Amino acid sequence: MLNAKNLNAKFNLKMIEYRYMNEATNSIIRTRFAPSPTGFLHIGSLRTALYAFLLAKHESGDFLLRIEDTDKKREVEGAEDALKEILTKFGLIWDEFYKQSERLEKYLKAAQKLVEEGHAFYCQCKPKNAKVEGFSNVLRDPCRDKSLKSGAVKLRVPENQTLSYFDFVHKKEISWKSDTVYDATLLKSDGYPTYHLAVAVDDLDMKITHILRGHDWLPSTPIHLLVFEYLGGKAPKIGHLTDILSSETGKKLSKRRDSVFVEQFVNDGYLEEALLNFVLLLGWAPKDNKELFTLDEMVKVFDINGFQEANPRFFMDKLNWMNGQYIRNLPMEDLNSKFQMTNAKFKALDNKKQLEITKLLQERMVKLTDLNTLAKFFWEKPDVDISLFGENYKKHLEVANEVVNNIDEWKLEVLNEKLMERIKSEGFKVGDFFMSLRIAITGMKFTPPINDSIIILGKEETIERLTSVITRSKTTK
């Protein structure tokens, strides 16, 4: 029930959102996706890139790609090109491109500025090996009052201050006492920046207006707020995205337990359009109940207030349903082309047969790779396991072979009619007869409609397969 208190609370929340967005729209919206080139793209990173892209493009703003490649020990050769390629496949095209390794001079100057102005200090302590020694719980570095002239550069965190920002994903103010924030390393002794310094320098220099990033960066936010302030710039608006949870364990998706890499989903037969649509709804919801969106439609309807606070679950059944919908909506020629690109043996078939197979499978597929199982028998003779057959299979196959041999007009309706006539006259059970026929032709119990498949396979090939199994059956007890 609404009362004056509830109405007032809702009004205040709306005013906060309005004021926040009004401030944000005083300039062109500029967002960035800033991955490290350390391997395959995580499904959560694809979601971050998508949200950043949509937030910018909905307001006719700019979407930047920034490669954070200053940690050379973790960099994987070819990962940068792979990142560019996968983003391009998904249609997330950037307006500007940057590499942190080409901006080292800027980070050095920023660190020197912070030291000169008393907001940072040099430290010559030996770095700890966290894996061996554990993480330090000391907040104030012992070198902060030594007036050293060289070494790593660390942030001088002030005492007795409140550090806060408004999170536009969670729609609330989040704050910390500075007494709980540690003196973070900004520039390592080798001259390379840490994330804490580089991200602030880059976001200010590139005039980023909105930051979207994973929830695991939330504890580092007070450090970044201080660096933004000390560098003399206004902090961008910040939103921390929810964690994507496994539907099986209820825990955050983990590369050790779950399928998490975008490239693997694509290789497994998921369409880029379907996967993008799926991740859109993992933490964001439209104003209506619509579920299927093209990228252009996403840009049009995207609303910054649609972010959800509850951690979403990654349901494979939902992804499979969505991918199936996209497959069914593809023009048949486009689906056929995708089959050609993913299966060399399918591509080797004549074009007429390809299209017939594609038409037969389109309504029955979940993933593109289903072609390899559902249709394999079209280009590869099956090794039929006799133990799969039920009773009377020999008689079933002999009758089927006779019917097929005597068909002059090779059409589906003729085959259907002739087979049903013999099934009725022989007193066969319809289901048992067609299961025997299915196994003999395909080697499997579950396939596309068997009579349709036989027509595509052709009369000669069908007779050859039936004859082969019948011959084997005569030597089988």
Assign the CATH class of the domain at 386-473. Answer: Mainly Alpha
Number of helices: 20
Q: Which fold does the CATH topology of the domain at 386-473 refer to?
A: Arc Repressor Mutant, subunit A
* Secondary-structure content class: mainly alpha
Ranges with pLDDT <50 over ≥5 residues? 1-25
**Euclidean distance between termini CA atoms:** 77 Å
CATH architecture of the domain at 386-473: Orthogonal Bundle
For the biggest β-sheet, the strand order reads 1-2-3
Overall mean confidence score, pLDDT: 91
Radius of gyration: 31 Å
Work out the number of β strands: 12
Instruction: State the shape.
Output: elongated
Strand content: 5-15%
Indicate the percent of residues in helices.
Answer: 40-55%
Largest sheet: 3 strands, parallel
List the defining traits of the structure above:
477 residues, mainly alpha, Arc Repressor Mutant, subunit A, 3-stranded parallel β-sheet, 3-stranded antiparallel β-sheet, elongated, disordered N terminus
Briefly characterize the structure.
The protein has helices spanning 4-24, 43-58, 79-89, 104-116, 130-133, 195-205, 221-230, 262-267, 272-280, 295-301, 316-329, 332-342, 344-347, 351-361, 371-374, 393-405, 412-426, 430-442, 450-457, 459-473; strands spanning 30-33, 62-67, 96-99, 120-123, 152-155, 162-167, 172-177, 185-187, 210-214, 237-241, 245-246, 313-314.
